[in-house]
## 1
Amino acid sequence: MKKPARTHRLWLAYMLHRLSGIGLVLFLPIHFWLLSLALTDRAAMADALQFTAHPLVKIAEYGLVFLLAVHLFGGVRLLVLEWARPVSNRWTDVHKTLAAFAVALAFAVSTLFFLRAL
Amino acid sequence: MTSKDDVLSVSVWRQTDDETGTFQQFDVPRQESQTVLDIVSYIQQNLDSTLTYRFACRVGMCGSCAMMVNGEPRWTCRTHVQKAAVDGKLQIAPLRNLPVIKDLVTDMDPFFDKWTKAEGVHHPSATRHDAIVPVDTTTAQRTIANEGIECINCAICYAACDTVSGNGDYLGPAALQRAWTLVNDERDGGHETVLDAVSQNDGCHNCHSMGSCTHYCPNELNPMKAIAGLKRETAKSWLKW
Ligand code: HEM
Ligand code: SF4
Ligand code: SF4
Ligand code: FES
């Protein structure tokens, strides 16, 4: 049976939050392992960092920073949604706008990061 | 002579046994201002009298006619074909997240059982011997309570919610919104009981605020906002304890 349409903004924000959360869970262990090399094996770390000069890796980093930023801003949006007393009677509209802002802000942060990395 | 525009191609869910079913194809003549419920009635009255469906008021009051229309949960009596049809086609299926009894009729018991489980029932705070206390309709709390009272129990929000599909025991948007209304109703004497009931494992903290309930509620109610209220109140009373 056809699933219900989920193309409304808050559902997409929810799915983005979930995917970015999963992305972070998968990425962070690698990230921390790499950082740990600074203490245990500096030569290996230098090798690994060499690898980050590759343009494909830079693009992947762009994606990761985006995931982190969008999860952070989106998470803060959810915390506001659930924990702040509603002040506007156009509450849903406010949250659709905030969801769009979270994505825009994450996009700005990750693009800045990307441009600096180039 | 009929042109393609005069006929609507409708595929309707038919239950073949307890477990499954299939879509059956019907061609239904188009009429002006036709609703999806009109289409189903036409099929039942003219094409196949064994088709089973449910409705009562036909004016969006009783909440009994909800179905999945082209994949979206809708009140069929107030949904115009013109708005719902895609490329002259209509797919009509029973409401999602509920067991199907036959064809387009779902078993609403799990939905209503959850209203009771969420303590969505009146807890008397006075007896018939007490004087009637007037309710001040202008207070902030009454305004919050009023936001949820137009619910017609149609289960459209319940069908739209992915958290219900993921966890069949989740109380769901309608029951939780009812609970929130009671928590804000000064005439209700069971605020603690309600908060207790909705903070259990399958209660309000399951909600991911994806807002499908609010998006689809035909009465433009906001269960997502009500659930956020419950999350705050239950957390507050937990901290107090
Ligand atoms: C940076 C600050 C962070 C904030 C403000 C934040 C906020 C949140 C919030 C509010 C939720 C609940 C969403 C919901 O109810 O659907 C959530 C879910 C989640 N977070 Fe985070 N988070 C942060 C960092 C992280 C990190 C570093 C990771 C990875 C290790 C992570 C992984 C997840 C996962 C997997 C979920 C579950 C997603 C789901 O159920 O849909 N989060 N986060
Ligand atoms: S906001 Fe909560 S109750 Fe509403 S559809 Fe999403 S998960 Fe379900
Ligand atoms: S909250 Fe809206 S969608 Fe849900 S049962 Fe009530 S009227 Fe129907
Ligand atoms: S028949 Fe009563 S709401 Fe549609």
## 2
Amino acid sequence: MNTSLKGNWLLVLAMSLMSAPLVIMYGFQLIDSISRPAPGGIIPQEWELTNWRFLWEPIDSARPSIWRVTFNTFVFASSTALLVCAFSITAAYALSRLNFPARRFFLAGLIMLHAFPTITLIIAIFIVLQFLGLYDSLMGVILVKAALELPFGIWIMKGFYDSVPWEIEMAGVQDGASRFRVWRELILPQVKPGLLALLIFSFLAGWSEFILPLVLAPGADAQVLATYMNAVIADDTRPDYGLFKAIGMFYALPVIAIYLLFQKRLMNIYGGGTKG
Amino acid sequence: MQIKLQNFTKRFGDTTVIEDMSLSIASGEMIALLGPSGCGKSTTLFAISGIHRIDGGSLHFGDRDVTTLPPQDRPVGVVFQNYALYPHMSVAENIGFPLRVQKLKTAEIKRRVGEMAELVQIGNLLKRRPQQLSGGQQQRVALARALVRKPDVLLLDEPLANLDAKLRLEMRSEIRRLQRETGITAILVTHDQIEAMSMCDRIALMRDGRIEQISTPSEMYERPASHYVAGFLGNPPISFVQAEANGKLILGAGNALPMPQGISARGAITIGIRPEHFGPQHQGPSVSGRVSFIEPQGREDLIDVTLPDTQRLRAIVPAGHNFALGQDVSWQVDLSRTHLFNADGARL
Ligand SMILES: Nc1ncnc2c1ncn2[C@@H]1O[C@H](COP(=O)(O)OP(=O)(O)OP(=O)(O)O)[C@@H](O)[C@H]1O
Ligand SMILES: [Mg+2]
């Protein structure tokens, strides 16, 4: 008992030390955003909210308001998440349960796409979007992001489906229900924890996406928070780091909130999604 | 409902699991599919239920050809080995699901679920989730769900395998009671000979996708059709000894038994002697050897006798005897109850 307590204590200490740099960075990000240090120093001298002014006034006339951009980001992230989930729950079920031609090929393709450095596709995607007239629109980026997230989503959901016993399905069929009804009423409820985790994960993936909107939707109309921040720091001749930090905080808040709210559920994805 | 399976063949990919099997079950009969793991019991069961497609042959329920009918349309209830209850539904919802699929009225569903729950004696558990039930209770829910549609056929795939010994005993008679009360035609898949013998009207003993023998439990026990059947049934198991038939049955050095009546084989044969037909308490020709193992069982002891040529015979001897390890004995064999098999394992 004693030794295990001591062992745990050491573990906690070691982990605290290792995560200390991260915590300190986050701490200073917050402090810096609401204070002004002496030039060249790090100790806050004065407390002020001017860095957060972007919340109630446009930071300059050429830029869309932060709320517009936040709304875009939200639409982008949630549409991506919904699309990924909708396709994953059906495609993963088929891969897990149905015996269709070229199933093995699809499975192998899924694993490959899952590990594929998608950024190498960006030129091709650009051309496709241009051809479809979806270049520089939120819709286009949503479709691309959802498509790129799908292999992960399908793979995770397939893991959850695989852990639902076959017998439940056979029992449902024997009880007279159609395959579709069995899926909807008997199988889907069993994979709900996985679905929720996937929904959150793909929302966060969309929320933090930077490259795709940057390349595929550079205009002001489709701007999301990541590209907005990029523009803020890149444009100015004299970059306003305080403002940049405050926007960064603002951008990270939903992510932190979601993790705090759902961390237990998110762990599910590792519990249920590991079986091939 | 009479079930008639004719020339049934089942393949998985290139492997033929069951070839040309025929089985006929009378209405209201309960039959056991008994056999070792992997012999095709579940495959046969699921072919009858409709979950597996039949690759050859035909299946009739009564006069109706159901060979190509999907499982949803077959009047069949199935109890799975792990019960396959729906974990997100209450007991009442589980039992009511087949009725809900049939779009019955809520009141009617409630009535029939209540009725069924009473029949399997779980009326007080209807609000619980399956995870909150013991193995035996889950089993009862699974039975109720399988029977609530009032199917013509009940299929049970190793329904007792996940229960502890005491519950197994209880559910054995419970399942039989339900089957008798509902008069349903039932097929029980099991690899436990005691389950098969105690619960069923007839046993179909399977081996490698074929039916080795099909008959009543006592017939199968007393007149096994083959070496394999004789070895499968009986606990403690039957002892086999090799003998040379030459007017007499010569059991190696010094021991010989007279030929049983009506048998005129010559050459190498196998004699099967059940432990309850060998021992000092029997009448008949004797075989001598040395006591090599004693296992007390309370009411009686199991004693192994090693013959001079190292073959062994096992005996059940009532407790209170004075035999000791290493003692030389000469015990009697109940000759009329021995089983003789030829070199191919067929009964003589
Ligand atoms: N879906 C399948 N695909 C390929 N082979 C299968 C499949 N299902 C069963 N088999 C094979 O068919 C044979 C019979 O299987 P089955 O499940 O009927 O055995 P069983 O008698 O029920 O055994 P157990 O007592 O272990 O349940 C086995 O050799 C098994 O490997
Ligand atoms: Mg089986």
